[in-house]
Each structure stands twice: as structure tokens, then as C-alpha cells.
Amino acid sequence: MPLTDHAPTLLSLLDQCDRAAPLGRKRLLGPSVNYGREALVALVRDRLGVTVGWEATTLRRVAGELAFTALYAAGLQVADDVALTALTSAALDAEIATGQSAFGALAGSVGFRRAVHDAVMELRIAGVTAAQFTALGGLRAVTSGLGAVLGRYEQALADLHLADAATVFRLGIDHYAAEVPYVLGDCALVIAGLDDVAGLPGALLALLLGRTPTPQRWAPPPLAASALVGVQVLRATVPEDEMLGLLRLAGAEAWRLDDIECAADARDAYGTALHAATDRVQAPFTALHGLAFVDCRLGRAMQGALTALTTPHLDATALAAALERRELQPPPPSGHLPDAAEQVADAAALATFVRRHRIGGTDARLAELRISFGRAASDRGPERYVDEDEARFDARRTAFAIDAARAVRLLDAIIALRALAQCGAPAVAAATLAVALLEWLERLVPELEDEQTARARLAARLSALAGTDAVPVPRAQAQADAGAVLEAMRIWPTEQRSPYASAGGAVHLTDLRHAGATARRVQWFAGLSADAVRGTGREAPLLDDRTRQRLHDAAGRPLPTSAERTRRRRLQLEGAVASALARGARVVLSWAAGLGEADAPDRLLLEALRAEPGAAALDPKLLLQRALIVQAVPDAMLQLDVRDAWLHALLGNGLRDGTAALEAAHPGLGRWAAAQQAWAAPVETPTVLHGAVPAAAALVPTRSGRSVSATELATMLSCPRRWFLQYLLRLPEPTEPGDADVWLDAGDYGTLVHAVYARAVHEQVDFASTGAEMRLRAMALDAVTRAAERDPPESAGARAAVTQRLLADVAVFLQTEQRLSASGTVVRREAERSFRAAGPDALQLTEGRSLAVHARVDRIEHRADGTVDVWDFKTSKAYDEAKEFARLTQALVGAHVVARRGDVVTSTGFRFATERADGAELSVSHDRLETLHAGVDQVLAVLEQGQFPPTADEHHAPCRYCAFQANCRAVSGAHGVHSPPSAWAVQQAAAAGDGDPVRRVARAVGVLTADDGGAA
Ligand code: SF4
């Protein structure tokens, strides 16, 4: 019979065995090899001396040794976890393929496939055969299907001559009597941490317990409430704060890091939390289970890759986000190896381009984009905007070509990899996906120095999957199988050889089952909320409690029910706490209460608080107030680093103003703080901050002679500060991401409309003829085709929407033209003419000054009386457009340049030849143009003084919240736009004298905008 030794500590039992046979063979049999190794290392450290003859082992290892000869004789090879997952998946798929299974609809879910795999493995290790399971009868449909999957799995193992853990245990048990003398001989056996073993491992354990010499068995002592006196209880909000509390307490109590073992069952949450906390203070840590691979950059990159290789519709937003997060890198141009900084810049620029051009969609669209950007990168570029000057257009075209070349390289890689993954086929093998993922890893995921080990391990796992049978299954199933390989992988943030083992100088994170194995001086139990200890209480999805109970009753196979699992978890926790207290460790219990409605702590924490003197009668609320509170901002606790010191100081009463330190640490922010102060009040003499830059006066077009477009003039009038940044400093404008749901944005659609309307005039369409409509419709369809070649739409629906809109607008255009033709007032039309007016023809200003201007005019209509009308076509809503006073500059410049060639301009204005504006027209009066002319004169006179103030007219021309909002720190919210420079200018204009530049500009612009109905 087993000797259950309630020895006070495991170490003392090991010590006792060691002294009994100092040179003999001894084995420590525990839940894992790591458990035994940690305990033996602790023994050596505890005794300050060497021990010999010990070996850490597990039941699985012993079984393997017992079965070794039998495995060889039967020609069986032991399969790894990737191969076993592939086998259960294949068994599941084969069962689904029969059409009889209840699993069909769930087959593509990673969680479901994982649940099937786990259930099959649990049945196998419990010693339940397919025949026994099927014989149970009367199970839920979804559960009874497991019997067939288990049967297929057993058959596959036999066919492939593979062995899983259950096979090994069975053979080990069957050959126990013959093999145990060779495997264990006379070695002493200590068994620890194996109190809840059942099934085949339980059967082997029973054999081992009956051997001679009799094994020593260690179990933790029972936990007495009185023993909890002195146990510290901590409360935090989130696991990150819990781990910060651990480090702060370690500092306050002068614990060494390798004095601390932290046990938490939520290994992903606490692994990440400890990583983040130790990273802040550059403290090392080791972790039994490491971190979830899919939570790290490489893991996210590969999950994204799996989606990109399996989805029929590549998501442009996800692609751009992956580039920004450095999970993806455009392949470099051949013959060029970019350095790290270049790679980051390339990826960021490409991300913007991907968003703007919505690079994604089906394989067909990816191919179209590849062709389109391929042309753009070589000979074809973007369309030139109306009024865009040569230099700007050239710069934009060059930038576009560089971005397009990057996009082509990315598209080439993605198209090739999607083809490798057989993205278009309805069925694919998980092995095929693994091959494509390996290629993706090689080609597109940037290699970072600290990820080399994880990368190599991932490559090995994917290669293992790639080596399995390539049987095509529905795509979702293959995706789930490949995803399972990623999800099952763990990583360690350190490159040391055995990062899962505790190391000197590092905190060690483990789980409850392994708690205490390192026998450290401080035993921390984290994540002890009531729900976490109790568990969800939910039954396993496939092997429900009823099935488990029936297996127990009918087949004598004990599979733990949900209640039994909860009971075991509590025993495990209490046993770990009791053994830590028994060996004299300092014990700390903590939980993360969460935000808002707090999560309750486990009852053990309340008992520990109640064990303190004077606390026995306190109600739980008062009791919890005795817990030490850990929060992100340190209050009563030790400050870990500079950040803690700052937060602590800011929390206190004394130091609240951190401006000086902030300025010292971040000069840019310091300058901004100074600007804030300067903008707080009107000034006598404007500084460079307020827009006084005398050195730039010579660059003002009236001085330099540079020709300006109507668009530039409009910018100048709307905000001289913006004009200064954009046209004189030539700061690059930030690129706005495109609207993912719309094929062509407003600007691109306007270009399309203008092209059709101009072509109709150039090709001299007779608008009054019966064939006019057909010709216009053909031109519209042709324009759409050309636009689609340049910028392929994401879907046929997006293209159809633009086509429909354009045809409707063209119909309105035709009606307008037919009306004009019928009126007889227009005898000739000219379309899209570019003009320049410089020298004596330039826009004349006061005091002999002049401004060279140029414009592209959409339409000149020659009247029967010899005069002309000048029109600008608009595709926006008529009302909004009329309010845009800046657009009036187009009328001014258009009328002026046309008049300079000798025409008499009768009227000028805007024609909204679109369906939504219902063909409206707005003429601009001569008075209005003259006022505008005078306003331009006045504003330029201020600029010529080297003064470039921000927008100041609060009623008519508030800050436009332009692309330079970041320079001004302007924000747009529910209450409108707030730009600090503009707010200062409004104040300055009100308070300053008439000569103040801000006031002069404000008055000039105010006059221009005083009448909203000016364009009428
Ligand atoms: S954000 Fe406003 S104040 Fe600043 S430059 Fe743009 S329009 Fe002018």
C-alpha cells in the first residue's frame, strides 16, 4: 500500500531519502519533469551541497521506458502534438464527409476542432475505447459523434503505425512485470504532486505504488485557518497592477528576485502582465509556460497571414494596420537591402497608400491593381488636378510612382502566396497552407533580432504540418487546423536555453500545479478571484457531466465532472498554500478586482484577512479594506522607477506642475507650451510664432513674380498661415485615408465628370441631335473604364454605383446643353482651356503692383452678341459651393484670364450640372468680383510685409481645420473647430489697432464674406 507521508515539506522527504541512500539511484516522480528538476535544484540549494543519483521523471516517461521494447517490436513510432492534431482533424473531416455527422456546421471553428481533439485525447488517456464509448448509447447527438471520430482516430494510428500517449501507457502497463526490473531496478522512488491521477496514468501509478522497495509519497499538509496569520493579501485592478505590486513589495521588503515564485493559473494574462511589469524596471523573469505565441508580434503577423491566405476577400484595412504594426514588410527592390530605418519608413508609407487606394479585395481585383500600379510605377501616373501647378504635379507624380512600385512588390508577393495557398479552390489541405505560411514568414514578415528563436520554432512546427498528408478539406477546416498549430505554441521572452526553468536573479512564474516546486522564500499566489478559483462551472462542451458519469458507471473510467474539477482546484490551491506555509515561506495572495463592479476575491483571501488579530468579527466589506491596494499610480507603496516617482509626486500636494521637467525632456513639447502662453493674449508686436516672418516677404508672388492659381489664391484668403505652410514652406500635406466603401472620392469623381463634359465639347457633339444621348453615355462608360484601369474598384457594385451616378449626371448635363442650344444665345462652346496672365496682363493691384495668375477654365460660351460667359463646373451641392467664398477666386481669376485674351466677359459663375444639384447655376456679380479683387489686394499687401497671420474672422471665415491642423494643434469636436492660433487671431483682431496685420487681413476677408449670398 502507498505510504502517504504528510512530511512537513517535500524537501525534507527528499533529504531523508537522499541520506538513506546517498549514492543509490533515486527517482522523483512528479507531474512534470520540470517539477522534479525544480525540487531537486531546491534541495541542492537548501543543503548547500551536491546530491547524486537523482532523476526527475513523470509517469509518461516511465511508461515510455516500460513500453520501449514493445513499441520497437510492434514497429510503432511515437507521434508529436502536431501530428496528433492532424490525425484528429483528419478523423473529424472523414466523419463529416459521411454526411451523417452532427458536426458538419461546426467543422470550420478552431474552438470546436480543439474541443474535439481535447475530448478524443481525454478519452484515450482515460483508457476509453471507441467500442466502449459507442456502447454507452443514449448520448446527445453532438457527443455520440465522438465515438465515430475516436474509432477513426484509433484506426489511423494503427494504419500509420503511430503511437500516442495512451498507446504508450497501455504498452507500459501490459509489459510492466517484464520490464520494471530493467527500468527501475532497485532505485528509490519518491512520488509527489500526483494526487489526482486517474485513467491509464492512474493504473500505472497503482502498479508503481505496489512495487518493492515501497515508494515514498508526499502530499501537502491540510491547511489550518490559524496558519494563515501573517499571510499578506493584495488587491489590484488588473493583472498588470498585481505584478507591479509584486515588484514594489519586493523592493520594499528587500526580497531578491530569485526569492520569489509566483503561481497563477491564467498563464496568458499573468505571463503578459509580469513581462510588462519586469520590462519597466529591466528585471528578468522566467516562466514555466511562457507567453502565448499568438499574443506577440510574430504570432499576430502569422495569424494575419493565415487570414490573408484563406479569405476570398483580402481586407485592405487589416493589411494597412499590419504594415503599420511592422507585422508585414514590403519586399525590397531587387539589388537593394534597406536598413532598419528605411524598412520602417517604407512600411509606413505603403500603409498610407494601401488605405488610400483600398488595396485589397478578391484575387481578380488584386490582379487588376497589380496591372494598374505597374503602369503607374513605369509610365502612367495620377491625373493632374485642375489648377495644379507643374512643380506640385511633378512632385506628386514622383511620389506616386515610388509608392506604386512598393505596392507592386507587395501585391506580387501576396498574389503569389495566395496562389500557393490555393486561395481560389474550395478545398485545400492544411499541409498546403503550412507551406504557404512558411513562405509568407520568409518573404513578408520582417526579422527582428529578439524573435529568432520563436521564428525557428514556428518554422519547425509549420514544417511538421507541411509534412502531414495533403488531403484537401473545406477551406475553413484547413484554416482551423493550421490556426491550431499557431495557437498551441508558447514563447519565452528570453533567449536562454531553458527559459521555462527557474533561474537565479529572476522572478519565476508558474501555475498552481507546480506551485512550491522551487521552494523559494516568497510564495506569491496571483489571480485568486472567486470566479477564477471556482471556475466557470460549465460542463465540457462535448464530454458533458452526464456522459462522464455514465463512463464511470458503465466502463469504470473516471473522467472528472465539472464539480470534481472545481473541488480539485480548491484542494490544489489550499495544498500549495499549506505546503508553502509549512516550509516557512512568506505567502502573499492577490487578485485583480477589475474595473467598475469589482470581482470578489476567493474565500481563502477573506479567511487570511480574518485570521489577523481583531478581524474575526468584521463583515467582508470592512475585511477587504484591510487588503493592501496596488494601483497603477503608487500611493503608499514603493516607487519602482522614474514613472512611479513622477506619478507619486503629481498625486501629492506639493509638486503638480511638471512643465519644466517636461520641457527639458521633450523640447518640442516645451516649444508648444511656450506657444500656448504666447497665444493666450493679444500682442503689440507679432513674433514669428504669430506669423511674422520678414525674410519670407520676398517670396510673396507679387514680389517674386510667381504665377498663382485660383486654388492657391483661395488658400491665401482662407488662411494666410496655411498658405505660408503649404506654398512657401512647402510642408508635405498629410494624406487622408480613402473611404473604404466608396470607389472614387469627391475629387476623383469630379475629374471624371469634367473629362466627359470637356470631351463632349472637344468632339463637337450636336446636343440637339437624337444621337447625342447615346454618344454621351458611351463617353461616360469609356471614362469609367479608364478610371477603373487606373484605380480598380473593390467590387462590381462599387463600379456600378459610380456608373449609375455618372449616367444620371450626364443626362442632366445634356438637358442643360439642349436648353442652351434651344435658347439660341450660345453660338459656340469652348471646353477646358488653360490660361496664364502675367506681365501687363496680370491681375492689377494698387500702387502699380500686380499678380501673375493662371487658371483652367471649364467652359467659355460665346454669345450671339459677341460677348462670352465663363463657367466653372461643380459636382458638389449648389448651396454648399456657393458659401465657399474661396471658390469665388476661381470666378475672379477665370474671368480675368479670359478677358486678357480680348473677350468681353458678360458673366461668370458656377454650373452644377449634376443630378443632385438639379442642374443649378450661380452667377457671380461684377460688384462681387471687384470686392474680391480689392480684398486680394489688401491681403497681399499684408503678406508683402512678411506677415502671415492665421484666420481671424470668427463669423465668416473661421479656421478651416485644414491639413495642417497638427501644426496648429487644432481640434474638431461637437462644438466646432478650435485652433489656438486662430482663436488668438480673433482676439487680436478685436483688440488691436487698424494697422495690425491680423486686423487688416480679418477686415479684408470679412468684407469678402460679409454677404453669404454674394454668389447669386
Ligand atoms: S488649422 Fe486653421 S489656423 Fe491652422 S493653418 Fe489650418 S486653417 Fe489656419
Q: What descriptive keywords fit this protein?
A:
1016 residues; alpha/beta; six-stranded mixed sheet; 40 helices; 28 strands; elongated; disordered N terminus; disordered C terminus; binds iron/sulfur cluster
What does this structure look like?
By secondary structure, the protein is α/β, with parallel strands linked by helices. It has 40 helices and 28 strands. The strands form 8 sheets. The chain has a 7-stranded parallel sheet with strand order 10-15-9-16-17-8-18, with helices on both faces. Strands 19, 20, 23, 24, 25 and 26 form a 6-stranded mixed sheet that branches. Strand 25 and strand 26 (920-924) form a beta hairpin. Helix 33 (772-790) packs antiparallel against helix 34 (796-823). The chain is elongated. The termini are far apart. Residues 719, 721-722, 950-951, 959-962, 964-965, 968, 970, 979, 981-982 line the site of iron/sulfur cluster. Iron/sulfur cluster is lined by residues 719, 721-722, 950-951, 959-962, 964-965, 968, 970, 979, 981-982.
According to DSSP, the number of beta strands is 28
Q: Radius of gyration from the CA trace? A: 39 Å
Spatially, the strands of the biggest sheet line up as 10-15-9-16-17-8-18
Oligomer: single chain
Shape: elongated
Fraction of helical residues: 40-55%
- Average of per-residue pLDDT values: 87
**What is the overall number of helices?**
40
Q: Into which percentage range does the β-strand content fall?
A: 5-15%
Largest sheet, in brief, is:
7 strands, parallel
Q: Cofactors and ligands present?
A: iron/sulfur cluster
Low-confidence parts: 1-6, 1011-1016
First-last Cα distance: 105 Å
Strand-pairing-aware structural class = alpha/beta
